[in-house]
UniProtKB/TrEMBL annotation:
GO terms of molecular function: glycosyltransferase activity
Cross-referenced PANTHER family: GLYCOSYLTRANSFERASE WBBK-RELATED
Keyword Ligase set for record: no
Biological classification of the source: Archaea, Methanobacteriati, Methanobacteriota, Stenosarchaea group, Halobacteria
Domain Glycosyl transferase family: start-end pairs: 153-309
Protein name: Group 1 glycosyl transferase
Alphabetized UniProt keyword annotations: Transferase
Amino acid sequence: MHIGLVVPDDLNQRSGGYRYDRKLVSYLESCGDDVTVCSLSDGEPALNQPFDVLLQDELCSPTLVDRNTALDKPAAIVALIHLLEGPVSKVLTDYDRDHHRRYLESVDAAICTSEFTRELVCDIVTEAIQTHVAPPAGRQPSLPPTLEDATTQARTGPLRLVFVGNVVPRKNVETLLDALAQVDQTIDWTLTIVGDTRAAPDYTCRIHERITTTGIADRLSFYGPVTDDVLESVLARSHVLAMPSHYESFGMVYLEAMEAGVVPIASAVGGASELVVDDTNGFVVDPTDTERITSIVTDLARDRERLVSLVLNGLQTADAHPSWETTFAKLRTFLTEVSDGVESPPSTGSEQP
């Protein structure tokens, strides 16, 4: 197939969505497909070409919503949706809903990274649209921790928490900080924040002010953006990934944490519950519930055998999760069917092979 992939910016950006896109390009090319990456940051790339499929990152929708109707050369146009702005349909403004609807009805099909997002897409459109769920895989380190090493790690040292993501309002760092500030002072814990603090400067300033006023600055450290190797090393020495975001479409980092023997505290808003089972391999929390986050951190710091059980369950979940190859093989089949005009029912790439 000849596939065009439209992305908002340089494909080498560090976000999870761009990493997904890079892996997808690599997989399609390994199958012999010709992939043309069209970045909107390069001006106005030529999109009206005889592609078998023109795959569009939905983040490009503000630019593409009025252009798609004029594209008559691609055999099919497919939206790739990592994240819909406005997490739950009931809180989308009328303008946002109308924009998303207009864009989604300008494409032939949509690929979503979670069932949650697929359901949201189907709720927004007024006409049926072909959909496929293709969840991301993790980093799949070449040497995951052994059960013995993971158990030893869980029992050792102060409770080490990590936050991984850009410091932006959607990631809800303030609620995490407020929850940690309520943990009994006799409990030994630390928090490492890994991510870009320049993405939302005003918000970052407010976060630093909150750290100061809550008196927990001596327990925190900031890493900023890091390479994959550094992130893996940070996860390898952590116990808990604390990410009670206001919204995560899937939350690739929750899976990456489980792979490393780290227990995720995940958001109940979005697709994380498709992976994280509350109080079994992690926790799924209301992102406004500081009391529960405080209680979870307290309990895990005091009961390391419970932490061990969660870690081992998480390793099993990560091991059973479909690989990138499995997910992308099903995604590619879906693209072929859409290109060929084959109608298919709503499908998912998350079944086990």
